[in-house]
Amino acid sequence: MKNYILKIVFSLAMFSTLTYAQTTELESDIKLVEAKEFSLKSTDGETVSLSDYKGRFVVIHIATTWCPYCNAEAPYLEEIYKSYHDKNVAVLIIDVKEPKELVEERIKNRFNLSFPVLLDTDGKVAASFAPADVLPELARDEIMLASNFLIDPEGKIQFMSLLDTKNFDVKLVHLKERLDELL
Question: Alpha-carbon distance 92 to 61, whole Å?
């Protein structure tokens, strides 16, 4: 398992410049792409669907408990939730391929999150967000770790950031700037 994790971290670090270039290019091209519908169980046992948020902005963060970038961004996602909740903005974390108890302990409870944390037990939802040409040597769901999306009230993706270790935006400044532009 450790070798597997090291492979992912090494691959992400090695290709961070490539990822940054693709992220910058994708941000302008992806604005008209519709987010794919999904339904996942939350750590609270509720089924949550993207369509539940139709008419609202939705910030989605794709995470795992072992991802240091995901953990670093979690408090700032809570900050976004608290600051923008009354402005028609929802926040969701989609955890990839981990058991509910682990996710509750290491994400939901550790960061005292007020918004839903969803369980993508097979990685298919995370994989559905993966651009076709990004880091092809990784599984499609692994590519999306530490990615952030902003989906508008009509279901279109207005912002996307892939993990970029060189230019890591822990405070989610670019995401908040885009959200402020749209509100």
Answer: 6
SS3 78: helix
CB 146 within 8 A of CB 50: no
Q: Which fold has domain 2-182?
A: Glutaredoxin (3.40.30)
Q: What is the mean pLDDT of the chain?
A: 83
Q: What is the pLDDT of residue 134?
A: 61
Please say whether the beta carbons of 22 and 160 come within 8 A: no
The residue among 146, 171, 158, 180 whose CA lies nearest residue 67 is: 146
Straight-line distance from the first to the last Cα atom of the chain, in angstroms, rounded to the nearest whole number: 43
Residue ranges of the domains in the chain?
2-182
Give the whole-angstrom CA distance, residue 124 versus residue 27. Answer: 22
Query: Which pLDDT tens digit goes with each residue over 127-138?
Result: 888 877 665 555
* 31: DSSP letter: G
| β-pair type (147-151, 117-120) | unpaired
Encoding tokens for residue 49? 């669907």
Note whether 121 and 94 are within 8 A (CB). Answer: no
